[in-house]
Amino acid sequence: MVHTTVHLVRHGEVHNPEGILYGRLPGYQLSELGQQMAARLGTYFSDGSHDVAALVASPLTRAQQTMAPIASALGLEISTDDRVIEAANYFEGMTFGVGDGSLRHPRHWPHLINPLRPSWGEPYRDQVARMHAAVADARNLAAGREAVIVSHQLPIWIARLAFEGRRLWHDPRKRECSLASVTSIHFDGDEYTGITFHEPVADLLPGASGVAGA
């Protein structure tokens, strides 16, 4: 059996001073810090310890910008795949919170009644289906080597939960999927064998010493 790894990479920090839940909205780009994170990822995947054969990115600008330094460092073309896009969300374009956010308006409350599906957005099982299909295609494309997919926090986390056989509904505050993190899915042939997690930009994350908040 050949060993193949598919790396699910979350994009870098986005410029979003208004604190909007931007979801799939166009025009949201990496902040200056996000660009530093992307550059670090380019170094991470080209340091000689990886053997990357395929690059796949969400169509959203922040994902394409995050992948660009990786593609440049490796001399590979980027394939865009709609299946790894951000999850659809009813609250897209709104601020999300109890104080001055959308949660204080009763008209939005019916969208919060079922966290297991979830009722406010794309069903978790639909996210699993599209993400796992994209991972399978990337695995086949890079058979015996490595593939990199730049996607978004929720689809990456849901894909991981499903691979690990864990329940899909969860506390969003407990996701292990920080900005520019790398969730690596390992296969022997077509068989899933495990996941490892790395934070190449840990020192650049909001809250790290000398780094401003997101």
Automatic annotation (TrEMBL):
- Out of the domains of life, which is the source? Bacteria
Q: What Gene Ontology molecular-function terms does this entry list?
A: phosphatase activity
Q: Which InterPro entries match?
A: His_Pase_superF_clade-1 (IPR013078), His_PPase_superfam (IPR029033), PGM_Phosphatase (IPR050275)
GO CC: one term? Answer: cytoplasm
**Classification via Pfam families:** His_Phos_1 (PF00300)
Q: What protein name is recorded for this chain?
A: Broad specificity phosphatase PhoE
Q: Which organism is it from?
A: Rarobacter faecitabidus
Q: What is the lineage of its organism?
A: Bacteria, Bacillati, Actinomycetota, Actinomycetes, Micrococcales
Record PANTHER family = BROAD-SPECIFICITY PHOSPHATASE YOR283W-RELATED (PTHR48100), PHOSPHOGLYCERATE MUTASE (PTHR48100:SF51)
